[in-house]
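Dear colleagues,

I hope this message finds you well. In preparation for our joint manuscript, I am sending the Glutathione-dependent peroxiredoxin (Ottowia oryzae) sequence together with its predicted structure, so that both groups work from identical material. I would be grateful if you could confirm receipt.
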Amino acid sequence: MIQVGDALPAVTLAEYSEVEGNGCSLGPNPVDVTQAAAGKTLAIFAVPGAFTPTCSAKHVPSYLQNADALKAAGVDEIWCLSVNDAFVMGAWARDQKTEGKIRMLADGDAAFAKAVGLTLDLNGKGLGLRSNRYSMLVKDGKVVTLNVEAPAKFEVSDGATMLAQAKA
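The corresponding structure tokens are as follows:
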């Protein structure tokens, strides 16, 4: 499992864009993690799935509620990762109204989740391989804090905890 001090994995995520601009075409666009994290402070949180109850009702809203305070504390971007495709993440972004606050990034084949050692096997529940629920504060591509949830819990990876860590 990834640890404090480790670099983020060199994988590519995907982001759905509904508006052309800033070098991004419409539709899914690749996001090279190493390039996207370089020189930035990131609040990254991962969820087992888009549109799932805890993720939609608690996890994403906790970051939306703290987005301005996180930016004031020095966080350049907030990333939400999920093992879903970019189209689903785009629809979830619209549903959660995250535009301009949280980048909703698809880890479609679980490459990031596997590389950081934080996968969650939900095959018996019909959901396949997913990401564990966690958050991390990252500076210039290196993990500064890591908050991994126990199974079926939502206690340490919320936006308020990340805000306290970003302020520390």
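For the figure legend, we might mention the following. Residues 12-167 form a domain with the Glutaredoxin fold (CATH 3.40.30.10). The first strand starts at residue 12 and ends at 17.

With kind regards,
E.M.
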